[in-house]
Amino acid sequence: GHDCCETVKVALCASREGHPVLVVAEESFQFVQDEAYDAAQFLATCAGNQQALNFTRFLDRSRPPAADVDFLDEKVALAFRHLKLPAEWNVLGADQSLTENIPRETLMHFAVRLGLLRLTWFLLQQPGGRGALSIHNNEGATPVSLALERGYQKLHQLLTEEEAKEPDSWSTLSHTVHSGDYSVKHHRGLNVYMLTAEA
């Protein structure tokens, strides 16, 4: 549940009412840093950085096949969920003095341009996520108009609905809450809670 490469000891436990918790098995494994994690870190640090966000537009010219986009979407969005973003982190970047009238590229434009449904939903839940929807880029496009222009029906619906639900494919995935050295993760599909602690 942490955002660093580390060796983790996992204990599988079983419990029944009136009986002590039984450790069924224990194993250690090593987390490794992958491209999705690197991409999430890069995107998180370049929120509001126009030079970096403009650089990401080259991906649009070599648009990957739909299956690759779906894979990329899930991996990067999950990596984002595991990043410990600073309390002041914002989808629009650190400089909140910028008014909404200044045309600029945002992380939301990036996610929508590539059709990244899960990442877009994640960004909508973050500070500045909803505000990013009304910002025009240098071509005059908002994330909402980009979704419409590119024919991303589900994405457009996600951006325009007031109480948009999580994309279906996320309904069984985990929800993580970080608190200092600890994180608690709830896997909805299995109704299992996991507590991890830095040691």
From TrEMBL:
Gene3D superfamilies: Ankyrin repeat-containing domain. One of its GO terms (molecular function) is MAP-kinase scaffold activity. Transmembrane segments: none annotated. InterPro entries: Ankyrin_rpt-contain_sf (IPR036770), Rho_GEF (IPR051632). GO terms for cellular component: actin cytoskeleton; membrane. GO terms for biological process: adrenergic receptor signaling pathway; positive regulation of canonical NF-kappaB signal transduction; regulation of Rho protein signal transduction. PANTHER family: A-KINASE ANCHOR PROTEIN 13, AGAP007712-PA. This is AKP13 protein. It comes from Calonectris borealis (Cory's shearwater). The gene is Akap13_1.
